[in-house]
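TICKET: design request
STATUS: open
ATTACHED STRUCTURE:
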């Protein structure tokens, strides 16, 4: 089984494990198993808020004992955090395909984002793609009913890779090809004539999904987005990946290697604040981001040497994974290495009170933030959870 999602409130930790089109959701207090739910469908990202656990699923034919449309289609399944009992489910279906890549739980529902092709249907809400694939973001209410659905895209391939919500604000981030738009307003591409993807970030109205502001960033090669977070100061922070030179606001940042991770901050009113690259001389990048107070924590991968603040990490076998904490000025205030002779990957990242929690997949013996783990019996099934404070 592969570890696909993780969420925690600091006391209860929930993980999603998937194999061969079926998934297992497990909840633990420390190392003690509290409940386990087996579900038809392939699980993805998780979210937890209050007494609920939000599970994303994908599949064709039947998902969570319900026929679903799409190759694949998607679903949000909500479980009781105390018992694992199902509360409600909402299908996200398409005439072609639909996937969920990101979600965040709120006090009155959940916000999900992803991509689709063809005609997307969520309850009574229907939108159609404008090209190869479009991104979507949708708010589902306390019983799963859609409050609003927003399409993002144009004639090329577009997607939402990050959503976050805080204090009545909704932030989204993703990638778009030239011609992409949000609420009828074009997203400016770095080169309108080139077929390469740029990144964008936007804030939507929590009640209606209306666009408040949007900004794009990118360069002459493909860029990608790993996630978005709203910190305690209200800043919206994007984790992305860039090659060559990336333009963010008035900054031109040059990758040291073939690719670097990018962390960029925007103010409450949508002004680009500051940005920095994380990487060395090899192919490096980011996979996830979460906010812990006024700091953000990012997770990624690297080869060779990776400078992080006042220290440098060295990959032990091919490439390693890492987690880094950055303050509101972009300074690295903490870093943790995940490495060994095999392959390590941080597949999920979330926040807990005062710190972070990560799900790690590994194929051999590994050291995670100073803790050694033995090699798994099945090299494809090694999984671990790590929790660390951010000071």
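STATUS: resolved
RESOLUTION: sequence designed for all positions
ATTACHED SEQUENCE:
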């Amino acid at each position: 089984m592969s570890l696909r999602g993780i969420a925690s409130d600091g006391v209860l930790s929930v993980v999603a494990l998937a194999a061969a089109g079926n998934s297992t959701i497990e909840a633990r207090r420390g190392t003690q198993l509290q409940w386990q739910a087996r579900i038809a469908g392939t699980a993805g990202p998780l979210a937890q808020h209050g007494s609920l656990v939000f599970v994303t699923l994908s599949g064709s034919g039947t998902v969570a004992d319900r026929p679903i449309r799409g190759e694949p289609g998607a679903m949000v399944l909500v479980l009781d955090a105390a018992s694992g009992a199902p509360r409600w489910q909402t299908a996200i279906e398409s005439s072609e395909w639909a996937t969920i890549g990101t979600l965040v739980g709120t006090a009155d529902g959940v916000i999900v984002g992803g991509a689709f092709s063809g005609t997307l249907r969520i309850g009574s809400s229907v939108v159609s793609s404008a090209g190869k694939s479009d991104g979507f973001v949708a708010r589902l209410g306390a019983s799963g009913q859609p409050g609003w659905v927003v399409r993002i895209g144009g004639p090329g391939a577009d997607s939402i890779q990050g959503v976050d919500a805080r204090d009545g604000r909704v932030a989204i981030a993703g990638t778009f090809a030239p011609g992409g738009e949000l609420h009828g307003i074009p997203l400016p591409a770095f080169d309108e004539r080139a077929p390469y993807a740029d990144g964008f970030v936007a804030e939507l109205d929590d009640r209606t999904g209306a666009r408040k502001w949007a900004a794009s960033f990118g360069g002459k090669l493909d860029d990608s987005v790993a996630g978005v977070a709203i910190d305690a100061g209200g800043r919206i922070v994007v984790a992305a990946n860039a090659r060559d030179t990336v333009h963010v606001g008035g900054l031109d940042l040059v990758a040291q290697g073939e690719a670097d991770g990018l962390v960029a901050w925007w103010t409450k009113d949508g002004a680009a604040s500051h940005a920095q690259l994380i990487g060395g001389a090899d192919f490096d990048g980011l996979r996830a981001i979460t906010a812990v107070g006024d700091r953000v924590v990012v997770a990624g991968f690297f080869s060779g040497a990776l400078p992080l603040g006042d220290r440098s990490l060295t990959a032990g076998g091919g490439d390693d994974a890492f987690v880094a904490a950055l303050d509101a000025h972009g300074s690295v205030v903490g870093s943790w290495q995940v490495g060994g002779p095999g392959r390590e990957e941080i597949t999920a990242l979330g926040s807990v009170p005062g710190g972070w929690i990560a799900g790690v997949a590994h194929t051999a013996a590994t050291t995670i933030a100073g803790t050694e783990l033995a090699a798994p019996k099945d090299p494809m099934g090694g999984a671990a959870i790590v929790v660390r404070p951010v000071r």
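CLOSING REMARK: The longest strand covers residues 311-326. DSSP finds no helices and 35 strands in the chain.
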